[in-house]
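REVIEWER CHECKLIST
Item 1: Sequence provided? yes
Item 2: Single chain? yes
Item 3: Sequence as submitted:
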Amino acid sequence: MIIAIMVMFVSSLLMVAAFTAANGDIHLSHIDLTQKQAYFAALAGVQEYEYGLEANPNYWQSCPQPKGSVPGEAAQSYEVTTLPASTDPETVKVCNSANPFATIIESKGTLANTFRIKSTGKAGTSKRTLIANFQVAGFLNYIYFTQYEVADPESYNATTNEQKYCETYRPQREALEARYGSSLRCHYIDFGPNDNVNGPMYTDDRAAVCGGAEFGRAGREVPDAVEMDLGISLEGCGSGSPKFNTLSGKPTENSPELVPPESDSSLKAYVEPQNEFTGLTYLVLEGGSDEIKVTQSSGTRKIKWPKNGLLYVGGSGCGYGEFEQENTDTSTTLAKEANCGSVYVKGNYKQSLTIGAEEDLIVNGKITPYGVTPPAAPPGTTTLGLIATRFVRVYHPCSGGVSGGGPEMENLWIYAAMLSTSHSFLVDNFRCGRSLGNLNVYGAIGQKWRGIVGLIGTSGYDKEYIYDERLATDEPPYFLAPLKAGWKIARETAP
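Item 4: Structure as written out by the authors:
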């Protein structure tokens, strides 16, 4: 009996120990499960914020704080907040929708031009937090982008073989040239000794550089990226050596390829009916009154600034064939453009705006933010986008060697992000007339083919391109992107 009682006592102790151990494991397993559920709830919050940015790239400016339950899991929830930048100049560091660029976007260090959100997930008594860093993706990361560093074959009536020849990158072109000889033309365009590209730049091709051309902004805490995917070709067209204000002192090679969309026709899906025009159109932006003067063959009228910030000009059939860069802006060519989806633009703007053209967009005068005197930097987050399927051109009528267009076309200033999806940004009649000083672009330039803006020291313009830092985070309405628009997650951490 004593032995039996002792065995039962020991067995009871073992059962109590086993139950205690099992109960502890159940508790730990439950904690582990709810922590994982809280993590995925936090991830759902990040994904909802990312969805908001995909629908509206300017979503971040309103300091959104999305919150809700995980679909199908009512006990799992998340809350998201937009974090203030460490460089926020305000005393109370908090996301401020009245001053979003300064209070949300990092302006210094390795995280410059990014912003952060905090997503907190809850499941039972467990909480998990994710910090996500967002950076913008697209052509507006650069002051200057080209797919091909040669003149557009359409600008000099290239043959079919030349068209195919030019639609390859430089090493392939050189191989084709060796095979077919000089009968195949593909005009390489040099960066001249007086050219300055003040900001990050990118080309999928090999760039031709001569003399003391300068790339990137000097003295920056985080040097600009100068990405020449296939390197550089040093040409003998000027004294001195090019200067690269980059981390390595030279351009980066072998970067991922960027390819522009074929056209800007997708903009038609978003434009309000009253802000879509047909045929050759002249626009004068009058930011002081928030109006736009519109002139067409039917007459002149004024319209209110578009509520969604988008204008589009389509065509009903062009009367000209191949574009000739050196025979433009005459009464004959204007007559042929009457039914084209082309638009002339100048003036100033106080609200963000994007103007799209089915054919050409022509800058025929100074374009600046309202109240800004060049070369001053633009304040706030108001930006302008100019997009054309064919050419973004600078108006320069010229006859008998005499430049036209008036004094306002000399040392021209354009504060805008410009994109030619299928062709180039260029200057009309660049060989004709006198030197016009600097072509000052404060913004960004994107183009499929390299456009010619002048002959070195002879005619047309020298380049003075300045990157508008705001475009890295605050793009014009409905601005197009190479693959997918807007922002991408650069880094995600779980403190």
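Item 5: Key structural point noted by reviewer: The radius of gyration is 29 Å.
Item 6: Recommendation: ____
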